[in-house]
Amino acid sequence: MTQQEVQNLVAEVVTLCLQKQEGQQQKCAAPSEILAEASARHVHLTREAVEALFGRGASLTKRKDLSQKGEFLSEQRVRVVTPKGELSNVAVLGPERSAVQVELSRSDCRTLGIQAPVRLSGDLSGAANVYLIGPNGMLQANGSAIVAKAHIHLPPDEAARRGLYDGQLVSVRMESSRPLTFEGIEVRVKESFTPALHIDLDEANACALDSQTRAVILSGERDTPVCACPGGQAPETKKAPVEIPNLVTEQTARCLVKQCSGSLMLSKRTILTPSAIDVFRQARICIERE
Ligand SMILES: [Zn+2]
Predict the structure, then answer these.
(1) What pLDDT digit, counting tens, does each position of 13-33 carry?
(2) How many Å lie between the centroid of ligand 1 and the Cα of residue 151?
(3) pLDDT mean over 239-258
């Protein structure tokens, strides 16, 4: 391929990218990535439940902090039992709460032979009955078992920056070796929250969640990345924060999309490989030329 042909190809691709961008309703359709975390089965206990299971005066001891401020994994473990099955070594999360809540996956419910409803944490309407067994006793936890509904935690400033609000339902596209899109995921906004998507183990396995997985928040409308800037205005074109080589490969592009939003200014001389162009396109980043 001659130099001229390469330049023509680059110009054509840049034009395509600009046309695509202009065709979108919002010019600033930058992606909205979020940390995805899988929650294994666990229980939340009241003060009375802690004493019933672990003895009078007992309290939960912290093993490690969780991503949400104040929440921790305790050293304590319980068994969750029904007439049909049992789960042992189930984690107890602290601090203590005002109601006993057992969060299970659908697979766990099959093991236990119960039909727990899908609910956001804190909503125990229609929750199933289980028994909890600790080293010091047993507890009949009626109306406590739910299948946790996938949700997103965001602090208010972060929600505003991403154009999201408390109670909003969004879709999240999981870009992994088993890509899929979760729909109807509720956004929860609170000062103490740290940005994270929480899914259960069934959902994590369904999308083969691992450390390489990108979770991209989409608006309720399918396949439209949530605008990352307030008021639907296009973000300012950012100068690339890093030195950009003359040839941008897919790998370099993946690096660059993490560091910019909206658009990226490149020198006229910079050549993009087709797979790099795909990466920018997927990330809805428009390439501009100096
Ligand atoms: Zn959560």
Answers:
(1) 444 444 444 334 333 334 589
(2) 6
(3) 72
What kind and span of H or E run contains 7? helix 3-23
Centre of ligand 1 to C-alpha 8, Å, is: 49
The total domain count for the chain is 3
- Residue 70 alpha carbon to ligand 1 centre in Å: 12
What is the spatial distance between Cα 217 and Cα 78, in angstroms, rounded to a whole number?
A: 35
Query: 195 CA to middle of ligand 1, Å?
Result: 10
Please give the residue range of the domain that contains residue 115.
41-148
The model's pTM: 0.66
Residues 142 and 162 in one domain: no
- With a CB cutoff of 8 Å and minimum separation 6, the contacts of 162 are 32, 154, 217, 226, 228
- Strands, E, within 22-123: which ranges? 33-34, 36-39, 42-44, 62-65, 72-81, 86-94, 101-104, 118-119
CA of 149 to the centre of ligand 1 (A): 9
Q: How far does residue 77's CA lie from ligand 1's centre (Å)?
A: 20
Count the alpha carbons within 13 Å of 89 in the hemisphere toward its beta carbon: 1
Helix (H, G, I), strand (E, B) or coil at 10: helix
* Same domain, yes or no: 88 and 162: no
Last residue of a domain, one of 115, 148, 181: 148
> What letter does residue 225 receive in the DSSP assignment?
B
Q: What is the mean pLDDT of residues 257-269?
A: 75
144 and 45 fall within a common domain = yes
**Residue 210 in contact with residue 234, Cβ under 8 Å?**
no
Neighbouring C-beta atoms of residue 196, cutoff 10 Å = 17
- Residue 106 parent element (H or E): helix 106-112
